[in-house]
Write a structure and sequence with these properties.
single chain; about 120 residues; mainly alpha
Length: about 120
């Protein structure tokens, strides 16, 4: 169960980055700006994820902010998809991500070291 949940988690992370890229790619009327945004926005989200959420995050958060940040990121990804006319896809991304997050918390957040978690 743990391995399946972690594999799903990885796929959800990739889907989140793809959702941000898709939404950013249609944000303006300028093709050049859309290309820059489609690269830059997922890159920024990936940096935030790597700093605060990833199992080997350089600035890991305690559980409540860790969960909250993920809810915000997946919520924004889902809302972004909905704003581009993909309401069902956005809802599926958000609901599956939240269910996966609940399982991760119930399993003890595998891969996170309690010694390295900072308090906010």
């Amino acid at each position: 169960m743990r391995a399946v949940n972690l594999a799903l988690r990885f796929l959800l992370e990739l889907c989140l980055l793809a959702a941000f890229a898709y939404c950013a790619a249609g944000a303006t009327g300028s093709t050049a700006a859309n290309v820059v945004l489609a690269i830059g926005v997922p890159l920024a989200v990936g940096v935030v994820w790597g700093l605060f959420v990833a199992p080997r995050a350089s600035r890991p958060l305690s559980t409540v902010p860790w969960v909250g940040l993920q809810i915000v990121l997946f919520g924004l990804g889902g809302l972004g998809l909905a704003s581009r006319g993909e309401q069902t896809l956005g809802a599926i991304l958000f609901v599956v991500a939240i269910a996966n997050l609940a399982i991760l918390v119930a399993l003890g957040e595998p891969g996170r070291s309690r010694e390295n978690v900072t308090k906010l």
